[in-house]
Write the structure tokens for this entry.
Amino acid sequence: VNPTIIQQEAITKIIMNILRGKKLKKDRLKIKSIIQYLQKNGAESVILGCTELPLIFSQKDVELELFDTTEIIAKAALSKIL
């Protein structure tokens, strides 16, 4: 299940806001609404595939399982090192 084109454009704008140092509540709410849309359309989990998204959104914000790619990569790197 993928976000619609309009939702993808909104996500891009949100990412650009974060890159500019703006962590807006309305952006977090928009991400939540997109995740709810994905869940209604059959998603069982969501990949936060951009390193900026976890800066404004986390597992505590939704019931659907989230995969934070930044956290996954960090854990894999530590595992490899140790």
Remarks:
- The beta strands are 45-48, 65-68.
